[in-house]
Amino acid sequence: MSKTIIVSNRLPIRIEKEDGKNLYKTSEGGLATGLGSIYKDGDNIWVGWPGISLPEEEEKEVEGELIQRNMRPVFLSEAEVQEFYLGFSNQTLWPAFHYFIHHMRFKDEEWKAYTDANQKFADAVSKWLEPDDVVWIHDYQLMLVPNMLRQKFPNITIGFFQHIPFPSYEVFRMIPWRRKLLNGVLGADYIGFHTYDDMRHFLSSCHRLAGYSYNRNQILVKNRLVEVDSLPMGIDYDKYAQSAKSELAKAKEMAFRNSLGSQDLILSMDRLDYSKGIPGRLKAFDRFLDENPEYIGKVSLFLIVVPSRDRVPSYKALKEKVEFLVGHINGKYATINYVPIRFYYRSYPLDELSAFYRMCRIAMITPKRDGMNLVCKEYIASRENQDGVLILSEMAGAAKELSDAILVNPNDEAEMVESIKRALEMPIKEQQRRMQIMQQTVSKYTIFQWVDLFIGNLRGLKARQEAMATKKLTEELKEELVAKFKKSKDPIIFLDYDGTLVPFFEDPEDSAPDEELEKLLTVLSKKAKLVVISGRKAATLDKWLTKFHIDLIAEHGIKINIDGKGWIKNPEIISSEWKDEARNIMEFYIQRTPGSFLEEKEHTLVWHYRKVEKGLGGLRSRELSSHLKHFLSNKGLDIIDGDHVVEVKPSAINKGKAAKERLKDMNSDFVMAFGDDRTDEDTFEALSDTAETIKVGNGFSYAKFAVENHEEVRSLLWNMVGER
């Protein structure tokens, strides 16, 4: 029976030493909570580091204990933790992905440690992996693991989720090992991020740095379909809501209140990290008190900072800075009965956190950059009376869902100051209106929905991959197709032109039908209804193919000529106002790319680069494609990366729609379609399961069968007509 293997840097349990004994303590994090329902079920397992470096003689004992808990350890030495985790993961990737470029460092020895540690994780998974298993890998520390597993087990199902932001191409390109990192992640089948922006940045980097074209959110990687998606992570809503309602939380709230006094409290809770914007929040609070002295003595900042990565120099410096600011502000405004900032450098159990969430009328969560941020969702779930105000950074992933919070730019100190005053003065009805909406959102999209959605999407993608795995058209299958054709009374055959009936030429005008193809079309058109469905201009198809008395569909379906009755424009076509903007962009790339040229059709523009130097052509095509997608994304257009072309056409038109329209009034008892590129996938997907669809060339496809080249296409067609 297949199992699910979860892989993360840390196990959902940590080992601590006490009096020489190993104590196993369960993690309270959102990921551990959400995935608990998976790894504890049946034969499923969780692979990760137990949080401590152990002597070799203890490892076997610990492994045995963890196996009993459905876990498998990856043991790391102190040196590996220092270079792989504290080094490359947290001083190269973490600052890069959070846009703190000045904290980035590039050390070859740390990259090697990262690679070696990732291999350790991959080896640990391999030890327990079986062919039908699902592997779900988590986060930036393990970006190489998906491809390491893919190399060893080509057909396994792999998911990857990144819990921190993914930076823009301009930042990610600074990392020397960027392509290896991208190719590592692309070993997965299904790749998830918290936000659409992160997903978009990843796709852009894959395209511009690793040379992979993408269509919407799909990438073809070595003939394997990879899908990238945005899935915001939730919390265990009921757990926090029930904890906040408990008598224990209420009693603790009362006890804390008695010692703190009657002033309003603003909750600020973060892990120690420069991405969390803690100093900026303190400065904003200082300025708020300075500009609004009437609130001195009436409002305090309840500052909780959870220790993290204390051994990293930048984190030590951050802690010192926070302590200095707290001391400075308290020294400036404190009285015998009033402390402006209550500062606590520690973590707290759930019951005390629930008390904090209850007693703080305002939560101020303003990271400089954050993948998601679950603290704000925990605060929302804990507001039993549906009051309170959330001040939230627009740079947090959660801001995409929680638009009823007071959203602020954490770099705008004046806006931060204004948000504090606005929160303190917000009427209770307005508080409740906003909180009710946010509670509905957070309660609907929980951690459990997130887990089910990811696993469901991963399995669905794997099923689509299997459906798109075309069979090689063997001699036996060819004989079956020929027999079906000869038995049919009303056959119809859809034929792409370039790459299917003729090879590609450097000059597109050299692709006119040769003598053999002319003879084939003449004979075939007498025995079947032929429809040539191409991206070519109508005038070109007229010149080359009208004499064969076959149907012609030009520019992917923009113009149609049935039975030689003349060209009709597709009624769904949009205006061509977009062409001037697209043409200007494409001509800019022609000037920079010797050998490239623009082909202009009535409703389509095509940039050709078959004559361009190989490396330069690929580079420029990726730049052009990204440029066009950015400027034309909302204009109802498709940007298609074809075989040595970048094409812009209206989205409403494609070969699949044109093929279905042509079949609408026909009762064909044999339907066949040939095509070689992505535009032909629309045809294969649109036709019914009874159609015989054939992909020309390698790669995943919606077609049932595959042949090598145009010569095999012609050979099959000759066999069907029974003469040559």
From TrEMBL:
<dbReference type="Pfam" id="PF02358">
    <property type="entry name" value="Trehalose_PPase"/>
</dbReference>
<dbReference type="InterPro" id="IPR003337">
    <property type="entry name" value="Trehalose_PPase"/>
</dbReference>
<keyword id="KW-0808">Transferase</keyword>
<dbReference type="GO" id="GO:0005829">
    <property type="term" value="C:cytosol"/>
</dbReference>
<dbReference type="InterPro" id="IPR006379">
    <property type="entry name" value="HAD-SF_hydro_IIB"/>
</dbReference>
<protein>
    <recommendedName>
        <fullName>Alpha,alpha-trehalose-phosphate synthase</fullName>
        <ecNumber>2.4.1.15</ecNumber>
    </recommendedName>
</protein>
<comment type="similarity">
    <text>Belongs to the glycosyltransferase 20 family.</text>
</comment>
<comment type="similarity">
    <text>In the C-terminal section; belongs to the trehalose phosphatase family.</text>
</comment>
<dbReference type="GO" id="GO:0005992">
    <property type="term" value="P:trehalose biosynthetic process"/>
</dbReference>
<dbReference type="GO" id="GO:0003825">
    <property type="term" value="F:alpha,alpha-trehalose-phosphate synthase (UDP-forming) activity"/>
</dbReference>
<dbReference type="Pfam" id="PF00982">
    <property type="entry name" value="Glyco_transf_20"/>
</dbReference>
<dbReference type="GO" id="GO:0004805">
    <property type="term" value="F:trehalose-phosphatase activity"/>
</dbReference>
<comment type="pathway">
    <text>Glycan biosynthesis; trehalose biosynthesis.</text>
</comment>
<dbReference type="InterPro" id="IPR036412">
    <property type="entry name" value="HAD-like_sf"/>
</dbReference>
<dbReference type="InterPro" id="IPR012766">
    <property type="entry name" value="Trehalose_OtsA"/>
</dbReference>
<keyword id="KW-0328">Glycosyltransferase</keyword>
<comment type="subunit">
    <text>Homotetramer.</text>
</comment>
<dbReference type="InterPro" id="IPR001830">
    <property type="entry name" value="Glyco_trans_20"/>
</dbReference>
<dbReference type="InterPro" id="IPR023214">
    <property type="entry name" value="HAD_sf"/>
</dbReference>
